[in-house]
Amino acid sequence: MNNIKGSLLVIASMLGFAIADMFMKQLTGFLPPSQVLMGVGLGSGAIFLAIIIYNRLPLFAPHHWSPLLLLRAALEAISGIMFTMALSRIDLSSAAAIFQAMPLMITLLAAVFLKETVGWRRWSALVIGFLGVFLIIRPGFGSFNANSLLVLGAALGIAIRDILTRRIADNVSSHVVALQGCSSFFVAGLLLSFQMGDSIRAVTSDEFVRFLGAALFGAAGYWAIVIAMRVGEASAVAPFRYTRLVFAMLLGIFILGERPVWPTFAGSALIVAAGLYTFLRERDLARRG
Hints:
Elements: H1 2-27, H2 33-54, H3 67-87, H4 92-99, H5 102-112, H6 120-137, H7 148-165, H8 174-196, H9 205-231, H10 234-237, H11 243-254, H12 262-288
């Protein structure tokens, strides 16, 4: 039952993230990425802060500010900067497709740093998956956009973040974890603003609605994925992360008017196929064990 609940939460989370990404993509057409990050982080953070205050959770308890959680928040900030900057420069559908390499990165990191055993089948799947990434990015061709590499960087940061999430103690509130992640976006946007010399301007009513949508759906997605990773088995719920690609492509095509080229579809198919095989193989090995 926990795995079913976790899977549904992952799907809901991916829908929330895809909608939030769409709003952020629209906002980066009018505002600098730093202001978009600050606005979304401030809005989402306010939502979780209100929940924490309402439930009288011990926000400043020492176990809520361990080095592990601070490192996790830092990874959120770095990944947020890279992904938001990428969204301002490439299509949402391409960014979403490249980002799907993140689960493959988790397997790769587990093999290299956690010394988990990975057989030749999963190594082959990883190679195929990353070939799909190269097919989407197409380095060396005229259509290559170096900003796509920012998405890969963001995916790597989130992969490390998810590995750290599994190590969070049970007495740590998921709402506090979510607040830390959202607040890190605001801090990241502030630092990026100073670095880039961006000026903050007043937003229009239309932009405010988009900020509100990004904050609400982003907060909902963030809450759902934190809960999902803590209540369900990773091997059971992780495959449903790929629904984010479906949602993002549909939103990109029908709302943003994007027209993905065939290498994007082909590369996406390779990434999803490799990722699903990797998850299924890991589950099979876990059952045998």
